[in-house]
Amino acid sequence: MENCTILSAVLLTLMITTLLWFIIACVNTPLWAAHICAKGSKSFFLASMFYPSKVRNRIFVFYAFARLSDDLIDEYTGEQQILNFLFLKRVLDYWYTNDISAKEVCYSIPILPNTFSVETIQKIIFSLESIVKECKIPRWAFELLMVGFKHDTSLHWISDETDLLKYCICVASSIGVICTHLYQNGGVKKEVLVKAASLGIAFQLTNISRDIITDLKQLQRIYVPKSWMNAEQRKQFQQMCAGNDVLIEANRNKLIRNYSVRLIEMAEVYYSDAWTGIKCLPKGVQMAVYSALLIYREIGMKILRENVYPNRSFVSSTDKLKLIIGTKESPKFAEVELSDFKNRASEMLQEVIEKLQSE
Q1: Which of 6, 7, 48, 159 is 20 to 30 Å from 352 by CA-CA measure?
Q2: What are the tens digits of pLDDT across the range 118-135?
Q3: Is the pTM value of this prediction over 0.85?
Q4: DSSP notation for 177-233
C-alpha cells in the first residue's frame, strides 16, 4: 500500500511538472498546430512534450499536415478524392519547385474537411515550407506518405509478408523518416533512416495487431497476409469481412488472436532494431522517441498478457507515465526465431523508394 502511495505521488508530480513545462513552452508554440495534435493523438502529443521546443513545434506542424492529408483522402471518394490528391501534389510542388504559379495552390483548396479552415490549411502549407527547407527533407519521403494514403483507400487484403512490409513503409515509416529529419537540420545518415523505417514498421504492425476486428467490422479490410493462411482460414476471413459477426466472435480468441500474436512477434524484431538506433539521434529528442516506442509497444504486450482478444487494446495514462519514467531501461524484447521473421527494413525501404522514383 505504501509503495502504491509513493508511486501515485511521483506520477502526480510528473503530471503537474509536465503541464507546467508545457504552459511555459507554449510562449513560442504554434497553438493551432498543438491543438490539432492533442485532439488527434494523445499518445503522440504526450511523447512530443519531451522534445526540445524547436523540434516539438516542427512536429506539431508536420502532424497537422499529416492529419489534413489523411482527412482529405480518407473522408472522400471518387472524383473529389482525385482532386484532393492533386491538391496535395501541388502542395509538394509548392515546397520543392521554384515555379511561381505553384504559389497559387494555397488559394485553390478543392474542399474543406470538417476539422480544417482555409486559414489553418494555409498556415500548415506556409509553416511547413520553411521547415522542409531548413531540415532538408527529401521529397520522396512525402511522396511515400501520399502512397500510404492511397493504399488505405483501395486496399482490401495484403497478399504476403513483403506486401505487408511495403505497406508499413509507406503509411508509417515515411512518417518516421520525416520526423528523423525534423530532429536536426539535414545531414541524416542512411543507417539512421533505416532505424526510423524499422520503428515505423513496428508501430504499424502493432496497429494492425490491435485493430483486426475493427478493420473487419468498420472498414471491411484484412491486413493479415493472405499467404499466412490456408484455404479454410481465408474463407473464414472473407466471411468475417463480409459482416459475419457470429464468426468474428467465434474466432476472437482463436484465429484472430493467433494472428494478432504473430504480428506482435514480428513487430518485436523491428522494435528491437529501432531501439538500438535511438542513441544515434540528437540527445534532446532521445527520451521522446524512447517514450513513444515503449508506449506503443505496450499495446501489443497487453494483448499478449490477456487470454481474451480485446476490441481495442490501449495504454492508460498511468501506465504511460510509468513507462516514461523507465525510458532508460531497455525492454526485454520477445525472442523470435530469425527463421520466422528477418529484419527487412533496409531492403524494403530501398525497393519502395526506387519504385517511386522510377514512376
Answers
A1: 48
A2: 899 999 999 999 999 999
A3: yes
A4: HHHHHHTSSS---HHHHHHHHHHHHHHHHHHHHH-HHHIIIII--B-S-GGGS-HHH
Q: Is residue 117 domain-shared with residue 247, that is, in the same domain?
A: no
The winner for highest mean pLDDT among 91-105, 177-191, 228-242 is: 228-242
* Of 106 and 45, more confident: 45
Amino acid (1-letter code) at residue 202: A
Weakest mean pLDDT among 45-49, 222-226, 249-253 = 45-49
CA pair distance 292, 174, nearest whole angstrom: 16
Print the domain residue range for 165: 138-359
Three-state DSSP state, 222: strand
68 and 149 assigned to the same domain:
no
Predicted local distance difference test score (pLDDT) of residue 338: 47
**254 CB contacts (<8 Å, ≥6 apart)?**
none
CATH of the domain at 358: 1.10.600.10
Contacts of 249 (CB under 8 A, 6+ apart): none
**For the segment 262-274, what is each residue's pLDDT rounded down to a tens digit?**
999 999 999 999 9
Residues contacting 108, CB < 8 A, separation 6+? 87, 90
- Name the domain count of the chain: 2
Gap between the Cα atoms of 148 and 142, Å rounded: 10
User: 85, 118, 135 — which closes off a domain?
Assistant: 135
* Helix 283-305, helix 190-210: angle, nearest 10: 30
- DSSP letters for 121-159: HHHHHHHHHHHHHHHT--HHHHHHHHHHHHHHHH--B--
